[in-house]
Amino acid sequence: MRLIFDPYNLTDPQWRVLRLLSIEDEIDAADLAARAFLLGPSLSRIVRHLSERGLILRRASKEDARRYLHAITPAGMKLVREIVPQFDPLYERIERELGIKDLQRLNATMERLAEILSETP
Questions:
Q1: DSSP letters of 53-95?
Q2: How far is CA 100 from CA 89, 93, 104, 106, in A?
Q3: Rounded (10°) CA dihedral 39, 21, 111, 114
Q4: N or C: the chain end with fewer CB closer than 10 Å?
């Protein structure tokens, strides 16, 4: 997947942040970090970088100034729309080589893993 991201000067974690923001109106930093499977310090660097590039916006919550909300900009959404179709050949290859049953098992296993990781110890 890096071959897809490299021409856009994006890393995998930066992509996860952009992709999540492309399907959410606005999300706070804690939820964004959890859903993107990122630690706080990593998210901070990613947010700073993507903000500097004009791909996302960050603002303090009106209810709690300690809480920051993030949203994708039109430029960020344009970039996501440009990149997403490039995954189609990759997904088609995975489906062709794994087969639909193995792919469904893999997806179920990944969903279960995400559930386990999201549970607090």
A1: TTSEEEEE-SS-TT-EEEEE-HHHHHHHHHHGGGGHHHHHHHH
A2: 15, 11, 6, 10
A3: 20
A4: C
Helix, strand, coil percent content, the chain, rounded in steps of 5:
70, 10, 20
pLDDT per residue over 20-59, tens digit each?
999 998 999 989 998 888 988 899 999 999 999 999 999 9
Helix (H) or strand (E) holding 11: none
Whole-structure pTM value: 0.79
Residue type, 84: V
Tell me whether strands 27-28 and 68-72 are parallel, antiparallel or unpaired.
Answer: antiparallel
Burial group, residue 73, by CB count within 10 angstroms (0-12, 13-18, 19+): middle
